[in-house]
DNA sequence: GCATTAAAGGACT
DNA sequence: AGTCCTTTAATGC
């Protein structure tokens, strides 16, 4: 029920291409951040923009019962955070580093100035947000019309296209992810995810540790688009 | 077709 | 050694 809500909410968080990232890196200072550090939470309304230079960050929400629901995973090159003009929701998002990371921090003003001075970046942000929007739309639609197995394949395809490395038909997922993370991102349960990952492994659609997906087979068997 | 519960085995620090 | 993660099975909606 509220899982659908959760997944359909839009935050400004996304990845920037390498060149733009380097430009931004010149304007900011990077700081090393240890694994398990919460760099953004509803209480610390820092109103700043973060730039993940290296590492991995998990975005999640906390339910009324105290359970954590992973919303998205970010890898190096990603931007996240809120500015006064870009925040699209009041949702209470937490951001936690999953591994030791390097993070650039920008105030909202400096980020907005940076965009004004580099119009190409605004275009890129729109492009990136559009593809992110498409991904989220695909997920919410699949929650309504498809079974859990399909949703797992879809999510792994999306993640591997965003973060993974391809070699032949196989493509790594590219992010550290638990079955719990997968479950909350597709509106399922950890145990069911475990079951279907097992099946998908037998079908040789995926391989575990490191998690990889056979994109050709996945498209053939589950008709997920894009590649 | 799936969530939930429970119970047990494995992996990570 | 203790916590987190995964697997398996039973039950019920």
Automatic annotation (TrEMBL):
Residues 146-217 form the HTH crp-type domain. InterPro entries: cNMP-bd_dom (IPR000595), cNMP-bd_dom_sf (IPR018490), Env_Response_Regulators (IPR050397), HTH_CRP (IPR012318), RmlC-like_jellyroll (IPR014710), WH-like_DNA-bd_sf (IPR036388), WH_DNA-bd_sf (IPR036390). The keyword Transit peptide does not apply. Pfam families: cNMP_binding, HTH_Crp_2. GO terms for molecular function: DNA binding; DNA-binding transcription factor activity. One of its GO terms (cellular component) is cytosol. Coiled coil: none annotated. Keywords: Activator, DNA-binding, Transcription, Transcription regulation. Residues 12-132 form the Cyclic nucleotide-binding domain. This is CRP/FNR family transcriptional regulator. It comes from Cytobacillus oceanisediminis.
């Amino acid at each position: 029920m509220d899982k659908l809500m959760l997944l359909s909410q839009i935050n400004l968080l996304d990845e920037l291409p390498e060149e733009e990232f380097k430009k931004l890196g010149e304007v900011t200072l990077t700081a090393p951040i240890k694994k398990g550090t919460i760099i953004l939470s509803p209480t610390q309304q820092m109103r700043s923009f973060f730039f993940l230079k290296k590492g991995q960050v998990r975005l999640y929400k906390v339910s009324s019962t105290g359970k954590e629901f992973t919303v998205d995973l970010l890898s190096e090159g990603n931007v996240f955070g809120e500015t006064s003009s870009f925040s699209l929701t009041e949702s209470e998002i937490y951001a936690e580093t999953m591994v030791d990371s390097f993070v650039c921090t920008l105030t909202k003003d400096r980020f907005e100035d940076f965009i004004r001075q580099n119009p190409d970046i605004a275009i890129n942000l729109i492009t990136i947000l559009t593809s992110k929007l498409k991904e989220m739309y695909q997920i919410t639609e699949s929650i309504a019309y498809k079974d859990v197995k399909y949703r797992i394949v879809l999510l792994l395809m999306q993640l591997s296209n965003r973060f993974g490395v391809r070699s032949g038909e196989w493509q790594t997922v590219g992010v550290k992810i638990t079955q719990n993370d997968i479950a909350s991102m597709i509106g399922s349960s950890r145990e069911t995810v475990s079951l279907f990952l097992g099946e998908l492994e037998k079908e040789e659609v995926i391989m575990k540790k490191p998690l990889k997906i056979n994109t050709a087979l996945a498209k053939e068997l589950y008709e997920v688009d894009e590649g």
